[in-house]
Amino acid sequence: MRRYINQIRDNEPVDEIFLVTDKQLRPNKNGIFYIQMTISDRTGSVGVRIWNATEEMFQTFAVGDFVRLDGTSQRFQGAIQIIGKAVVRVDASEVNPEDFKKSVQIDRQKLRNRLAEMMRGMTNPSLANLVDCFLVDEEFMRRFCQLPAGVKLHHAYEGGLLEHTVTMLEVALKIVPFYPMLDKDLLLTGIFLHDIGKTVELVAGSEFSYSDEGQILGHPVIAIELLHEKIREAEKLTAEKFDAETAMLLKHIIISHHGTYLNGSPKLPMTLEAIAIHFLDSLDSKLVEFEKYMFEDPNAGSHWTNYIPTIERKLYKGKEKGA
């Protein structure tokens, strides 16, 4: 019977097949190499260290490979990690794919239909025509509906980008009546566009990863390029020049949606719609990310998760989710 990552406890032997999602060969302070890697299955991921490693061992497997890992779990800085003794590449034909599919299941066709319904309900003809150029682009929509919104932190599963976008649109439609100062159609279009660069930034394989273009440019820059292409398409279809100020406002939403310089925004949000989109984006992504920490937490039997260094806190799972 398979043992999943979220079932691994402190100080236990581990001998199981996992997917390699990251690996690095590093020297310690004495110049002796060790392998630092991340492995995953459908329940989550965990860090691994293999001491006294060699270049030859490091080259026997790659990111995206399945490997059998033999080692021992231990708690380090509040989190479980595995100290590996041996790692051997396993052919994909020997693996049950269901063990590595993320457990989140969504109805992508239903979400795609709802996306089109909301976007085609706009009354601004210029924005409606622009968005329609994306919606009828089957290759773009295939990737938009397939890819995650993130590789590790939030909506990191097939269809995650679509679900993240639809959720933001649904919430936006709920709050617009309370904030009449917002331009509803600009807000909806900005939400739809804010992460479209991820259709190029991310690639799907045995595990989601970043394309070369995604690594070098990032999804906001890529999104601006995609927007330019579709503006030109819309102008040809309508024989009308797309409003320059509207184009500028949409670009601003895209480049500012991360909200702060620290989070990678070249500009801070400076319009009401950009501010709203930043907070809607943050709300949805953080709630899903924190729920993931709770779901994948190996600290069974406690109302609390382990301390999570990336967010500098523990999370309260509650009495029903704990023991």
Summarize the structure.
By secondary structure, the protein is α+β, with helices and mostly antiparallel strands. It has 12 helices and 7 strands.
Topology:
Blueprint: E1 13-27, E2 33-41, E3 44-50, H1 55-58, E4 66-76, E5 79-90, H2 108-119, H3 125-135, H4 138-146, H5 160-175, H6 184-193, H7 198-201, E6 202-203, E7 209-210, H8 212-217, H9 219-238, H10 244-256, H11 272-296, H12 318-321
Parallel strand pairs: 3-5
Antiparallel strand pairs: 1-2, 1-4, 2-3, 4-5, 6-7
What CATH calls the topology of the largest domain is Hypothetical protein af1432
Main structural class: alpha+beta
Query: Quick one: how many beta strands?
Result: 7
| Oligomer category | single chain
- CATH architecture field of the largest domain: Orthogonal Bundle
- Give the CA-CA distance, first to last residue: 23 Å
- As laid out across the biggest beta sheet, the strand order is 1-2-3-5-4
Categorize the overall geometry.
Answer: elongated
* Major beta-sheet overview: 5 strands, mixed, barrel
Give the overall pLDDT as a whole number.
90
What does this molecule look like?
This protein is an alpha+beta fold. The chain has 2 domains: about 100 residues, OB fold (Dihydrolipoamide Acetyltransferase, E2P) (Beta Barrel); about 180 residues, Hypothetical protein af1432 (Orthogonal Bundle), CATH 1.10.3210. Helix content is about 40%, strand content about 20%. The protein has 12 helices and 7 strands. The strands form 2 sheets. The protein has a 5-stranded mixed barrel with strand order 1-2-3-5-4. It has a two-stranded antiparallel ribbon with strand order 6-7. Helix 2 packs across helix 5, helix 5 runs antiparallel to helix 6 and helix 5 packs across helix 11. The chain starts with 12 loop residues before the first strand and ends with a helix. The mean pLDDT is about 90.
